[in-house]
Amino acid sequence: MLRAAKQITRHRGTNERITYLCSKIVTSTSNSYYSTLNQKKYKGGGKSNGWSKYFLAPRGPKGWTIPPSRGYGMIVARVLRGALKLRYILLGGAIGGGVTLNKKYEDWKDGLPDLKWLEEVMPKGEKWTQFSKALAEFGSSVKDVIEIAKGEIKAKTTVTALSLSNDESRRKYALQSQVENLQTEVINVQIKYQRELEKMEKENRELRQQFLILKQNKKTGTKKIKKSLIDMYSEVLDELTGYDSSYSMADHLPRVVVVGDQSSGKTSVLESIAKARIFPRGSGEMMTRAPVKVTLAEGPYHVAQFRDSDREYDLNKESDLSELRREVEFRMRASVRGGKTVSNEVISMTVKGPGLQRMVLVDLPGIISTMTVDMAADTKDSIHQMTKHYMSNPNAIILCIQDGSVDAERSNVTDLVMQCDPLGRRTIFVLTKVDLAEELADPDRIRKILSGKLFNMKALGYYAVVTGRGRKDDSIEAIRQYEEDFFKNSKLFHRRGVIMPHQVTSRNLSMAVSDRFWKMVRETIEQQADAFKATRFNLETEWKNNFPRLRESGRDELFEKAKGEILDEVVNLSQICAKKWEEALSEKLWDKLSNYVFENVYLPAAQSGSQNSVNTMVDIKLRQWAEQSLPAKSVESGWETLQTQFLMLMEKARKSPDHDDIFDNLKLAVIDEAIRRHSWEDKAIDMLRVIQLNTLEDRFVHDKTEWDHAVKFLETSVKDKLDQTEHTLSEMMGPGQLTRITHWKSLTEDQSKRRHVKHELDKILRTDEKHLPTLSYDELTTVRKNLQREGVEVDTDYIRQTWFPTYRRHFLKQALHRAHDCRKAYYLYTQQGTECEISCSDVVLFWRIQQVIKVTCNALRQQVINREARRLDKEIKEVLDEFSEDEEKKAQLLTGKRVLLAEELIKVRHIQEKLEEFINCLNQEK
């Protein structure tokens, strides 16, 4: 009613349109009707009646005749138009009643509980109907089968009784025949039952798959998907293996160890249990080169995944299966190093799928009796030791695989199993390739093997399986169908055999192994939890005795703490004031530039001669310097200053009372790596070059204060250089008279010669205080002859070596005198310029250099604060991120008893928690 009202309301206000449409419909209908009517022949001469023609042809207002079809349509249209006037009355009632009904329905709906979760969880109606119908059919079919079997058994029992009473001589034959027939019927019934059961399981898996998909899609932030019990158990095993690689003997938790001779079919048995061809294959070649731990679990999809990888392989796709086999083969070959043939490294994978039995299996390399030339010399012994290593664990379930197509006496694995489990309390014997054994072997020997009477080896159970027809491309479904058909039709296991039905097929084997596996898990898991509880108590006691005031922190936590401290120091770089930055930059920059300024600019220009030549040479040298090496040296100084300030902050943090020296090695390694990677921005050099060239163009000191600073800068720089020269001379000349007396020292022969040479050179400088930087030939000859008269033989090179520091000291002393004179000559300099009586070009040069250093330090400070400190922060973070993922690097940089003890305590605590969580889930399932 509401829907009709809404449709009427939607067309409200379109009365004329509806009338027109109705008239068109009726007109077209009437036209069709009369065209048909005119074609018919009536009984009265085959013509239409005259009165009907007159009636159907009304006249218009002007007397012309309206066509019959048109008139009929107009009449009907008028009737409908009048009738439609009633719709407003109906519309009002419908809307009013609908609104009231809708309100009542909403109030009733709000009172009901929220059942949306049931719609999301339950399957669709068709699926549920199919499931219920299939369940009912299955129940009736099973009931019919049981009733038929009962009736047949009862009838045959009656016949047997009658036959025995009639003919005693045929009693034995009849009993044997009926036993065989009953076995056949039981097997047929079981096969039929298994098929029905598999059908029901398939439908159940589809429903369960939909349920799990819906459940996984309904993820919320507060609810986690519960891990399966076998996944939790596999994680416990991985944790134990990571805790201690030698943790594999008496205290080890159960796992199924698959052992057998090479090419006995053990890998095929494992694949049959996993329901997928997951392992690589080779004809006659050893393929299993390392232990493969396979965790089987039930899941909605048939997938496989390696422990150290996030990729899932879809086992229903042949492409994924091929990639999985290649990856397994690659990992096996990668684990073999140093010329070895087999490896002890475990390859861990998980296989999930509908209907899989939950257990953990380890596939080991096959035992060999003869080695080939391409194998390592110790391959045979290595495989034996590895197999014993896994089987010697008293909690390991040994799945002993025997090839049924070869003589039992040729087997190597049975003796090895008897050594490790002589009582057979944890051994399950599996006879493979029985389809070949039926044709090649003696049936009596096969029956003896499966009844445990051929070998001295004892076992919990004996099983016969068929793992294929030897074809690499056969699927698991084809193999299982072949196995089922074989056991159904086999004469060895059907006609003459006494083997129980539960001893055959891979399905029964997997269920038996899984039952035994979980039984042993329940028996041993609590012992493991108690052992780790005791270990945890001992470690916690040791920690309290050695580090009572510290909390146990592992390497990851310590690394995060060190990371925070390093990043805090980077932040502190931005808190250094601008004045301190410029002072540090100025000091570092002048330390790098001073030698070049003196040796390449100042001394060559000042010792050149006239004032004009000095200024010209200074301009040329400064411009070359600013265009070539000065910007790069400035950037280098800025980078070294940034490093120095950062290291000073780190050193200051080390002296604080809260400092923890356990982080020192890590911090230094991170900083060194970040500094090694860091490079100053390239555009900074171009920017500095422009600024420095513009600054050096200014050759006039603007005020007295700058003049005084320049004079002071000149004096300080010259004194530093003079001290270096004095130190060089003292090393050449040896100690003075007072030092020799007080310290009981004497001059060497070379030092004595240097003193005589210096004495002659001082005479030259006293004679000519404005002497040029070099000695003439005549002066060299005079000095050498004077020394010869005193008994000192030297060559000209020896004299020049002594002249260089001697003249430099003389020149620097004169420069200090000129600087002292220029201190009060600023106003004279401003008036006379370059023609000033006192030569102050030294002051102007150092003023220009001082200005360049000032603007360079200012630019470098801005670059450090605005760009370089942030880039260094980014690089330090990158290094920290890389180190955080490198466990070896963390173990190398964070060492000591405190770290090792904390790491062990954290691992033991984590394993104990995993064990307790698993035990709780196990008890709940139990």
UniProtKB/TrEMBL annotation:
Q: Which UniProt keywords apply?
A: Apoptosis, Coiled coil, Disulfide bond, GTP-binding, Hydrolase, Lipid-binding, Membrane, Mitochondrion, Mitochondrion inner membrane, Nucleotide-binding, Transit peptide, Transmembrane, Transmembrane helix
What subcellular locations does the record give? Mitochondrion inner membrane; Mitochondrion intermembrane space
Q: Which GO terms describe its biological process?
A: apoptotic process; endocytosis; intracellular distribution of mitochondria; mitochondrial fission; mitochondrial fusion; peroxisome fission
Coarse class of the primary localization is mitochondrion
What membrane topology is annotated for this entry?
Single-pass membrane protein
- Enumerate the catalysed reactions: GTP + H2O = GDP + phosphate + H(+)
Indicate yes or no for the key word Transcription: no
Can you name this protein? Dynamin-like GTPase OPA1, mitochondrial
